[in-house]
Amino acid sequence: MIEFAAVSKKYSTDAFALRDVSLNIGKGELVFLAGPSGAGKSTLLKMIAAVERPTSGRVIVNGHDIGKLKRAGVPFLRRNLGLIFQQQRLLNDRSILANVMLSLLVTGASSSEAGQRARAALDKVGLLDRAHAHPMELSGGEQQRVAVARAIVNRPQIILADEPTANLDRAAADRVIDALRAFNSVGVTCMISTHDDTVLGAAGRVIRLEQGQIAGGAQ
Ligand code: ADP
Ligand code: ADP
């Protein structure tokens, strides 16, 4: 489902952000991308979403060759991706329900369908009882779970979560990871980056990056 073949990435003329990375991720896998800050984790995830392109090598996602993908093809790729970032941009002028519904409304869903599916997604992350709260009223961990609900509500095949537990305490971090695991257990391929090895837990494959290179777990 996701394949990197000898991928390198340079942002400028100096150092490599990623160097000769090869890996394969199959449908339904749960993969943690571990490594210290600056190791290249964000760069790797951004390439899967065609936010960045490889300098050399090949990245294939759901059959799309990212290096050759035309601008017009990017929305088709992203339709099957749920993206969660460290700083998720929730809209503060509306409820979390409205925030989650928005991802559906932009794809043409009716408001009754969007409302029903957004409620179901909030229920899955344990926030249905807060549906009418605004983002600012929630804790950081709750806001991250809203971001998980927003990422999943379009039923993507792949979820990419870039440091979703950064700045959260242990209990809140565990709840975010548990929410992601729950979607993985119904078949969604999940990649979760973290610089914090305590997040890794028992289940799940760990791919480790160090200074832009694979240090374990790629095959
Ligand atoms: P991580 O997510 O593991 O912290 P990143 O992928 O963000 O690592 O960064 C990998 C390397 O690439 C770092 O040295 C970083 O400074 C560099 N880098 C990341 N993004 C850019 C950019 N937009 N322009 C230039 N250098 C960048
Ligand atoms: P509904 O059928 O009302 O959408 P579900 O209980 O089937 O309710 O799912 C609740 C939410 O969780 C859905 O909106 C969907 O986005 C997400 N979801 C559930 N299962 C999957 C799955 N296999 N893949 C992606 N998303 C899923």
Automatic annotation (TrEMBL):
PANTHER family: CELL DIVISION ATP-BINDING PROTEIN FTSE, IMPORT ATP-BINDING PROTEIN. Keywords: ATP-binding, Cell membrane, Membrane, Nucleotide-binding, Transport. InterPro entries: AAA+_ATPase, ABC_transporter-like_ATP-bd, ABC_transporter-like_CS, ABC_transpr_LolD-like, MacB-like_ATP-bd, P-loop_NTPase. Residues 2-219 form the ABC transporter domain. One of its GO terms (molecular function) is ATP binding. The keyword Nucleotide-binding applies. This is ATP-binding cassette domain-containing protein.
